[in-house]
Amino acid sequence: MGSLKTQLEQYGEAEDLLQEAISTARRIRDRWRLAQALESLGECFQKQSKLNEAASELEEACLLWQQQSLQEISKQVASTLVELKTSQRDWDAALFWHDHILAICRQQKQHSEMAGHLEGKGETLVVAQRYDEAALHFEAAIATCEESGYSWRWSLKLSRLCAIPKTAIKWERRLQLLCDVKKLQRRIPQLVTAGLKLPIPGGKS
User: Its domain of life (predicted)?
Assistant: First the structure.
């Protein structure tokens, strides 16, 4: 009923109903209903542009779904949190939820999807002006595609890698380094690849 009230834009009634549902679920220790009600309340807050309140509810819902091994739902909620935190320019929080999604993709061996989310995290890092990390994530996305047999998908990712401001990766060009897999694994814990051998194009000065 609370979700229906949200759809009807009757937000006050929706909040009351969903808060009651959350209290009941906590009392009877029903984690599934609790996660569902928290997610619905987060969506209600988000529609009202109450972003901090929305994030609080969605974060708890996301982790509850994960605890119940409902990883796909957890991943969907985490994607919403990425969008929400990005809109707030809270880069560290957005990157945290990117990592949450990547961990699920890695666990489920969803390599094609993982490549897409590595690229998405790279985009966030570009906006945050953390260009060296962004370059590593784009290169990891390319390598993941190639190693998984999706080589046709990495031309766009290569163009994103080449578009990173030249000044941000001068250190790589000056030392003529290829992507350092050990450095990549420090920045993206538990990422396993056979090797990253793609050079960063020089471009014209």
Answer: Eukaryota
